[in-house]
Each structure stands twice: as C-alpha cells, then as structure tokens.
Amino acid sequence: QAVVTQEPSLTVSPGGTVTLTCDSTTGAVSSGHYPSWFQQKPGQAPKRLIYDTSNKESWTPARFSGSLLGGKAALTLSGAQPEDEADYSCLLSYSGGRYVFGTGTKITVL
Amino acid sequence: QVQLQESGPRLVEPSETLSLTCTLSGRSISNSYWNWIRQSPGKGLEWIGYVYYSGFTNGITNYNPSLKSRVTISADTSKNLFSLTLTSVTAADSAVYYCATRDFDYWGQGILVTVSS
After folding, report:
1. From the CB of residue A3, how many other CB atoms can be counted at a distance below 10 Å?
2. Alpha-carbon torsion, ordered B10, B80, B104, B70, to 10 deg
C-alpha cells in the first residue's frame, strides 16, 4: 500500500513562514486524494485544519493555508506563532475508500 | 455537535483480543461512516478502518490492508455506538486508539491500550 511521507521536523522563527509537504509513493498527489491536514499537540487528539486540499475549518487560523505544490500536498504557515508548535500530519484518500496518514512533521517555533 | 468517547480495557495480554467501543452523542450512527485510528507511542497516525451502517445494509466495512486479517469494526444502532476488535495482539499493537467521524473532523479523546502480560 502507499506510503505518505512528510518532513520529520522543521523549525520556523516567530512571525516567519514555513511550508510542510505531503508526498505519496504512488505518484503525484492530486485533488483526487482529498488532502487533509491535522495539528496535534501533546496529549491531545488530532485536530483537522484543512480538508479537500485547501478548505479551512471554522477554527483554523487564517495563517494556515493548504495547496498542491510540485506533485505534493502542502501546508503553509505564514506568520508563525508560539502556539503553532505541534505535530502536523497529512491524510490522503486512495481508491477503494482507503486512507493513509503521513509520517508527520514536528514544527518548532524558535 | 457530535461527540465521541472511546472506552474499553486499557491492558490486554499478548495473543488476546483487543475490544474497544466508541459511543456517540449528538448524531445518529446511521447513514454515515465511522473511523478508527491508532497512534503508537512516539509514532504517526495509522488508519485502521471504518464502518458504514444504514437501514438498508448490515454494515459496510473497509480496513487497512496491513490489519485486515485481524480487524473487525461493527456498529450497534440501538446503542448508537461502534466497536473495534483486534485479534492476536502483540506489543506492536500498544497505542492510543481514536475513533472519529467520516471526514475526520471530530475525534474522541483517545484511549491508551497497552499489550503486556
């Protein structure tokens, strides 16, 4: 089955911009994979930030945005805040109704 | 707003069966998909599978191929809950188990299950 890979860790300065990517071993990620992005803080359940590539939840801060970039799904954080320090995971949907989560990226705001 | 709550034994012996329940409030279990996900300590999220129940089906399921031979997910409409059963567990099945809605927009708080004798 597909493996979905993300950067293990990234560091961003407060107020800075960082882009996380989500890559699939089966080929280019497209809107047909309905990419979602989740934020998870220690001891908490994941919280969905982005769905269907670029749609935001009502609770998603405006500084987060989703897109497709060079055959990958991408999550961009513009104007990082200390509270954005967390683990971020993507989720892709595959044919047959199956899902695969990405390996996860730990974001440090420093 | 839908709320989900996982429950079940937190300690399971190796080779035994892990059984968890996800109780829903604020939404009927019927006519929607319901997911189970797990996360091993310090590791990433792993989709386990989902169940769909309607008045016309007995429960359509779909499982992660890597777990398919050991997993069963079922729904109990009378109690508005769905369940996860994982057989022949090993230490590698120790994880926080979450239940979630069809689109993964609402999650339970998770339950840590340890496989150990």
Report:
1. 11
2. 50
Residues above pLDDT 70, as percent of chain A? 100
A-B C-beta contacts closer than 8 Å? 47
Strand bridging mode A9-12 / A105-109: parallel
Residue A89 is nearest to which of B45, B62, B108, comparing CB atoms? B45
pLDDT, tens digit, 9 for 90 and up, residues A34-49: 999 999 999 999 999 9
The SS3 of residue B77 is coil
Instruction: With H, G, I as helix, E, B as strand and everything else as coil, classify residue B92.
Output: helix
Which residue in chain A is spatially nearest to B110 when comparing CA positions?
A45
- Which of the residues B104, B109, B111, B112 would you substitute to probe the A interface, choosing the one with the greatest number of A C-beta atoms within 10 Å? B104
Tell me the per-residue pLDDT of B34-56, one tens digit each, with 9 for 90 and over. Answer: 999 999 998 999 999 999 987 67
Q: Which residues of B touch A91 (CB under 8 A)?
A: 45, 47, 104
pLDDT over 80 (residue A98)? yes
Region B6-20 average pLDDT:
98
List the single residue in A1, A89, A104 with the smallest CB-CB distance to B65.
A1
Number of H helices, E strands in chain B: 0, 10
